[in-house]
Automatic annotation (TrEMBL):
Residues 769-785 form the DNA mismatch repair proteins mutS family domain. The keyword Ribosomal protein does not apply. PANTHER family: DNA MISMATCH REPAIR PROTEIN MSH3, DNA MISMATCH REPAIR PROTEIN MUTS FAMILY MEMBER. GO terms for cellular component: nucleus. Pfam families: MutS_I, MutS_II, MutS_III, MutS_IV, MutS_V. This is DNA mismatch repair protein MSH3. Its main location: nucleus. Keywords: ATP-binding, DNA damage, DNA repair, DNA-binding, Nucleotide-binding, Nucleus. It is found in: Nucleus. Belongs to the DNA mismatch repair MutS family. MSH3 subfamily. It comes from the Eukaryota. GO terms for molecular function: ATP binding; ATP-dependent DNA damage sensor activity; mismatched DNA binding. The lineage of its organism: Eukaryota, Fungi, Fungi incertae sedis, Mucoromycota, Mucoromycotina. GO terms for biological process: mismatch repair; mitotic recombination.
Length: 883
């Protein structure tokens, strides 16, 4: 009889069904660990391999494509120790929560302790999921490194119903944490039945893992399912979902959450800055989500990532333009609409960054355009100075940035105590290099941003003090931590540096390390003395110590002299030429040696962790330096964009307007094989603020309206724009309603989705917004659709008064331009019609001109699509009858 292994939604549990099963000591440990950590796929260290047991082994075998077999009571599979990180990465990508169980004692410690006859002690050392795994791998980049992939954000969503209607108006709390970089985004917002606000935040953040209550409202569950559903068959695209247990009150009870947060932030958080004080408000408005997140991250030992409130960002901060979920998708801000990949998006067009931290910051800039004229002027002043700067200066900076490691991620690894000595040294060397890289005498700029960046970099010089504490020659050795720190005997000035660094472990941990080193040296000395003595005793002058296959201090004797070997010597190995032995004295000393080494490993690790904590005390200083470099990388990227042909710096004003001469679609022109036809844009709240746009199908209407929105967004990012000239007012938001799609998950038709989205836009749009409505009303009968389109457009013209682009195939709506000539105009995409006696053939000119187009020329599209001529002829007759 074998244990029953149960799998449900990738939550693995192991239960014994028969007390008569006789487990091995190791299996008993595994059963206990599985009971203690339900839902975790365990990799258990056994000697030089990591083993999976039971259903875990079957899953590992299927996911990793390795063999599995039956051993005693369980199916098992194994992987070598040195391949652990690779296999963990694949398991985590597949959506599993993986635990690494390590042996906590060596053979030497075990033999010297009271645990001699028991199995090796083991305990869970690390837990990993999609958002918490970043050991040894870059983050936020796709497989070929060309652009950002789905981020490492963990997003917690908590709902509160503060009204009578349990399914519509809700208050939602959201916390998003990127443990790899320490970024934290929070928000509290009201949402409607469509959950458009939640969708917007999820599309911006792109979480790879969600922490959710045991139960959410149906509309919320549906929108989460829709947003997180993979666009491809790759498991990497699927966000992992972790449910908070139903009996856990931290996400449901305000007092429990606040009590937890009070204790959590009680020590070590003295951020009195304005940003810090502002972030503290999240404790009260977003307490349940924050507490649930902190508790969840604590099991991964990553809770320190949300202790520094200085880096909390409010998603709804008023300093940025709002791009809702529909706008992000329709305008292809982060991903294209064809295969949902990075290529062809607005981000890909602007992204020429060379550092990982620069890529991450640019993505934030693109998704959160500025709405403050002064901030935009400061950013574009810096951009213009870089554009005009000498090429050799820019190349020097780019070459410097290109060769930096991902310091932002590495600093977080130091904070979590996960950085290896080699990584630590690399990070410190990079920071030292940064502190003196850009000499102010050579790289002197006039703009405020660039001056601040150059002045911030020297603050990284403290890294030199930490670097000077390390023995660089020890890096790369097998047990480098034993000799990692320079002793006071070798470096008389170390007390001064310890004072600077705050590193004072010599008084306790390091003293113990030195004591163990002395003992190791003594044992080795005794063995060498023993060798000289035994040579005389057995009269074998050529006797010597050798190490073979990991076995140390073997007494090697030529076989021709083997008769002189005492009978009590134990033969360990032999060849045709020599034999190798251990004596009782050597065996005893080897045990002492192994014990001292094991104790030294522990002491050296403690000293190293203490040093990492000391370095992490400077985390904020170092991170601010990295943020400055990221900003410099982003500005250089935008400067590269600005140097493209016919790109211009926009002129900004507080007055709401979009006046562009010969503007172009920034993405389409990059991929088209022919010359792009530019178009003017002319909107002004004191003149024409509404355009009714008509024209034939495939005539370029969609490209034009996207061009208007993208140029406005690019301008407020701080980028130059594709045009001859551009005068832009500051928009507070861009809203779009494009495309025809139903929402099968919500049981809603195409027309219902259209109206829901239009309703949301009408509630949120202001006179400073840009609104694009594409073919509203097409999802129902012509009369009803036209009536609704008329009423909505009339509302925007007379009440909302935002800059509005209304694309339609209802020519009669042009009457509103005559009714409100002071604010509304008409336009259509020009064309030439041929073969009027047959099926009309239309030549598209892709130029926007004034006036209404009375025909849509759908038959021309049908002809291009290849419909049979008989069908086209019959359709033409019917069309003429209906006209």
């Amino acid at each position: 009889v074998k244990p029953v292994l149960k799998q449900s939604n990738k939550i693995l549990s192991l239960k014994k069904t028969d007390d008569s099963i006789k487990y091995t000591p190791l299996e008993s440990q595994v059963v206990k660990l599985k009971e203690e950590y339900p839902g975790v796929l365990l990799a258990v260290e056994v000697g030089y391999k990591y083993r999976f047991f039971g259903e875990d082994a079957v899953i590992a075998s299927r996911t990793l494509r390795i063999a599995h077999w039956v051993d005693h009571n369980f199916t098992v599979a194994s992987i070598p120790v040195h391949r652990l990180q690779v296999h963990l990465h694949r398991l985590v990508d597949a959506g599993y929560k993986v635990g690494v169980v390590c042996q906590t004692e060596t053979a030497a410690l075990k033999s010297a302790g009271p645990n001699k006859s028991a199995p090796f002690q083991r305990e869970l050392k690390q837990l990993y999921t999609k958002s918490t795994f970043f050991d040894g791998f870059g983050v936020d980049q796709d497989e070929n490194g060309s652009g950002p992939s789905h981020s490492n954000y963990l997003m917690t969503i908590i709902e509160e119903n503060r009204g009578k209607n349990k399914t519509s108006e809700l208050v939602t709390m959201a916390i998003a944490v990127n443990p790899a970089t320490g970024d934290v985004i929070y928000d509290v917002f009201e949402d409607g039945f469509m959950r458009s606000e939640l969708e917007t935040r999820m599309l911006h953040i792109e979480p790879c893992e969600l922490l959710l209550p045991f139960k959410l409202s149906k509309p919320t569950e549906k929108i989460i399912g829709m947003v997180t559903s993979p666009k491809t068959t790759s498991p990497k695209e699927r966000a992992r979902i972790e449910r908070i247990p139903e009996n856990e009150t931290i996400s449901t009870d305000y007092n429990t959450a606040l009590s937890f947060l009070t204790e959590f932030y009680a020590h070590g958080n003295q951020d009195n800055s304005e940003s810090g004080k502002s972030a503290y408000r999240v404790f009260f408005v977003c307490s349940k989500a924050l507490a649930a997140t902190a508790q969840y991250l604590r099991q991964f030992r990553l809770d320190h990532s949300i202790k520094l409130t200085k880096y909390f960002i409010n998603f709804s901060a008023r300093g940025h333009m709002l791009l809702n979920g529909n706008t992000m998708t329709n305008l292809e801000i982060y991903r294209n609409s064809i295969d949902n990949s990075y290529k062809g998006s607005l981000l890909s067009i602007l992204d020429k960054t060379v550092s990982p931290f620069g890529k991450r910051l640019l993505k934030k800039w693109v998704g959160r355009p500025l709405i403050n004229v002064d901030q935009l002027k400061i950013r574009t002043d810096a951009l213009e100075e870089l554009v005009e700067a000498d090429d050799y200066l820019k190349k020097d900076i780019l070459n410097f940035l290109k060769h930096l490691p991902d310091i932002e991620r590495d600093l977080c690894r130091i904070q979590y105590g996960r950085s290896s000595p080699k990584e630590l040294l690399g990070t410190l060397e990079a920071l030292v290099k940064i502190s003196g890289a850009l000499d102010p005498r050579k790289f002197r700029f006039n703009s405020r941003i660039l001056t601040k960046i150059i002045d911030t970099l020297p603050t990284a010089r403290h890294a030199q003090d930490f670097k000077d504490c390390l023995n660089q020659n020890a890096i790369g050795e097998k047990n480098c931590k034993h000799n990692l720190f320079i002793s006071e005997n070798q470096w008389p000035d170390i007390p001064m540096h310890k004072q600077v660094c705050g590193f004072s472990t010599d008084t306790h941990i390091r003293a113990y390390v030195i004591q163990l080193k002395v003992k190791l040296k003594l044992v080795r000395s005794q063995l060498e003395e023993y060798l000289e003595q035994i040579k005389v005793d057995v009269n074998i002058p050529t006797l010597r110590f050798v190490d073979v296959s990991g076995i140390e201090y073997l007494l090697e004797v030529k076989n021709s002299m083997a008769s002189k070997v005492p009978i009590e010597w134990v033969k360990m190995s032999a060849t045709k030429a020599v034999s190798r032995f251990h004596t009782r004295f050597v065996s005893e000393k080897l045990k002492e040696l192994e014990l001292s080494r094991a104790l030294l490993d522990i002491a050296a690790e403690n000293a190293y962790q203490d040093f990492l904590r000391t370095v992490s005390d400077r985390y904020e200083v170092f991170r601010d330096v990295v943020q400055s470099l990221a900003e410099l990388d982003c500005l250089l990227s935008l400067a590269d964009t600005a140097l493209r042909p016919d790109y211009v710096r926009p002129v900004f004003s507080d007055h709401v307007q979009i006046k562009v001469k010969n503007g172009r679609h920034p993405m389409v022109e990059q991929f088209t094989t022919t010359d792009y036809i530019p178009n003017d844009i002319n909107f002004d709240t004191d003149e024409y603020r509404t355009m009714i746009l008509t024209g034939p199908n495939m005539g370029g209407k969609s490209s034009y309206i996207r061009q208007v929105a993208l140029i406005s967004i690019m301008g407020q990012i701080g980028s130059y724009v594709p045009a001859e000239s551009a005068e832009l007012g500051i928009l507070d938001a861009v809203y779009t309603r494009m495309g025809a799609m139903d929402n099968a998950l919500s049981g809603e038709s195409t027309f219902m989705v259209e109206l829901h989205e239009t309703s949301d836009i009408m509630k949120q749009a202001t006179p400073r917004s840009l609104v694009i409505l594409d073919e509203l009303g097409r999802g129902t009968s012509t009369h009803d659709g036209m009536a609704i389109a008329y009423a909505v457009l009339h509302r925007f013209i007379t009440k909302i008064q935002s800059i509005t682009l209304f694309v339609t195939h209802y020519p009669s709506l042009g009457g509103l331009a005559k009714e409100y000539p002071e604010s509304t105009t008409t336009g259509h995409m020009s064309f030439i019609e041929e073969d009027v006696n047959d099926i009309p053939s239309v030549i598209f000119l892709y130029k926007m001109v004034p006036g209404i187009s009375l025909k849509s020329y759908g038959l021309n599209v049908a002809r291009i699509a290849g419909l049979p001529k008989k069908i086209l002829a019959k359709a033409k007759i019917k069309s003429e009858e209906m006209e």
